[in-house]
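Dear colleagues,

As part of the handover before I leave the project, I'm documenting each prediction I ran so the next person doesn't have to rerun anything. This entry is a single chain, and its sequence is reproduced below.
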Amino acid sequence: MRPSEDEKLEQQLDAALLDFFRRNDSGELTDREEFLSSHLEIADQLRELLDAADLIEQMAGPRLSQLAETATSIHPDEIRRPGMQNEDDDFSLASSVDADEPTLQFFSAQPAVSQSNPPTAVVSEADPDSQATPTTRNDHSPGDVSNVSPGNTQHVLPCRFGDYVLQKILGRGGMGVVYLAHQVQLERPVAIKMIRSGCLAGQEEIVRFYAEARSAARLDHPNIVSVYQCGEIDGHHYFSMDYVPGTDLSRRINKGPLTPRDAARYVRDVSRTIAYAHSQSVLHRDLKPANVLIDQDDSVVITDFGLAKLMGTDNGLTRSGAALGTPSYMSPEQAEGNNELLAETTDVYSLGAILFAALTGKPPFQGSTAVQTIMDVIHKPAPSVRMSHPAIPLDLDTIASKCLQKTPSLRYATAQALADELDRYLKGQPIQARPLGRIYRIARWLVNVPIIAALVGVQAPDPKAGHRWTQRLLLAMFILLLPILGVAGVGMSRWWSDHTMPRHVAIAAGVPTGMYHSLADAFAKNLKETTGNRPTVYTTEGSQENLQRLLNGQVDLALLQGTSVRSGQVSVVAPMYFEAVHLLVRNGKSIAKLDDLRGHRVAVGTLDSGTHQAAAILFENSSVTFSDFDAVLIDVQEVGQDPTIDAVLAVIKVGHPSIVGLIAENEFSLLSIENAQSISLNEPTLRPFEITALDYPSAHATNIQTIATPAFLCCRSNASSRLVEESLTAMYASNEPIEGLIAAERAARWQGLPMHPAARRFFENILQNEKERKNRF
């Protein structure tokens, strides 16, 4: 089918437009009219399209890559200011900015004032990152932008921007562009940073831009770039900063590795500066050589706080799962997007990567693509400095290796600790970090064996012939020993799971003001001290919710009322304390026993609480049921707020402040449960109990007969023995005993409990030791 006349015309226009833009971008085109005269058949239609393109460009702003530089070309040793990075250095999985298509419209109708009228340097769009060669423009005066038509792809600097004269581009980054400028009123050189997308910047981009300015401005330190002013001019957001002539660490490293002492001195000074930022609760999160400026006095100045974050806050700028930073210098947790794990040790890792690059000339990880680099950062062990540069001092290799550990807790805890360590090296004193042990070095060598790397979930960093021969030997041995390995593997798996501690122990507690929660907090504190683990205590509605979380695998440990320990999937770690059933009646109500509750409003605890469950068992063993009265599902601590409640059932530790408060205000009195003995015989989890007059002196009552249920610390039946053993140690052998806890000697005498095997062994040892002590005497 032949194309119609309209289709032919459209194809001609498309071809002509493409030719125009190609020749215009490359600098071949000098006159638009001359170009139109070469396409006379479609000149009118082509002119309309080009005029429309001019209008769009005028509204959106000229390409940043088309902006001109001044006659003074940028010297290689000249400083790049905050935000200017190599284009291929920046990487952000969360960035909405297209670094390859920046737009910026900053031209003012007022030309820049120049006494010397220097020739103007022009950067062509075809090569936006090249250093322009100064060329003299004879068609108009320098800085006069009035003669530059919107359709022309070449623009000039200097130009006026508010109180500033923009003189030349110092650098470009993923989000911003930085200019050398002259502040007119104060007559000083400054650096001006603007958003690359100019008037088209989105709200998130603007918020992040000003967050960078605020982060830097809150830091008052001689080695951190000073922010002077920020604001908006003609729709363009900017902030001005101190201009520091010099170079940066990236350019120094690009010339070759630094001497060990220079590398240690630079990183020490950077670490001290970052330690100050951390003391002000600011994480940098984008430390790399390009952001370490070196001034003319050979001192470091830290810049580019575009990814900085206030510790302990969530400013909404970093989405969960977003990897922000520069791949070769970001920590593994940063590369994984685990932003909730970012802490001071995140910057410590980046400082270690900078030290590695300064010593070797390249970062520890540098894949063929940004994504490959991120995968290497996450999965591969960091290489040793001395592997490629054996002459590097062992102490510096040790310091860099400690910084680059995958696990944050294995790094230097603070940037100040790293600075102190490097200072010890520079002073010739012994460092505190120890070199990697032989086993660790062997393990790191074995990871280069491809089959071993695959088994441990990493990529073989750099397999050599020896690694491949080792792999062949392992495969041959595996085939010969496969039957034995199968049996041993099952046993080893069981042994390993039984001797492994969860990375982060999760504990289901109860309501924040309840006894369960206070005991769980005390237990978690002891567990952290004895194991170094960081337990998490979850607030819940009570025993029933705790049981469900335990069965669902959401928590490792849970506090359960004795009546809840009925599932074969749950085992007892230890009894913690007794909770007595308190029956309280409002003074003046005709309630003398359980049967008298009929027709009254009775608080029976929340639906998932142990109180509600114990109340159900209590009424199952009496003539009263829930349908005989108005059951109110509230906690005992809320009773005082409802004057219509006539009675309260609460399963709680004797002497709890909430019960004391209800009695002390002379509103409620305690009643005995007359059939407590028979109920305990029917329910093995309940025991007869007596509340004495001394327990509640303000009650002015005799001893109260009731029932009690123990509260247990429980785990799943298949929980590891290590978890149970460490939990028992935290309960009974910690330096700070848990107040109100049943003593281990008494707990050891309990019979008939579904104990975890490790707990049973623990308490049997206590009984055996007690027996041996008695025999000795």
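Residues 56-155, 315-322 have pLDDT under 50 and may be disordered. Residues 576 and 741 are 5 Å apart (CA to CA).

All the best with the project,
I.
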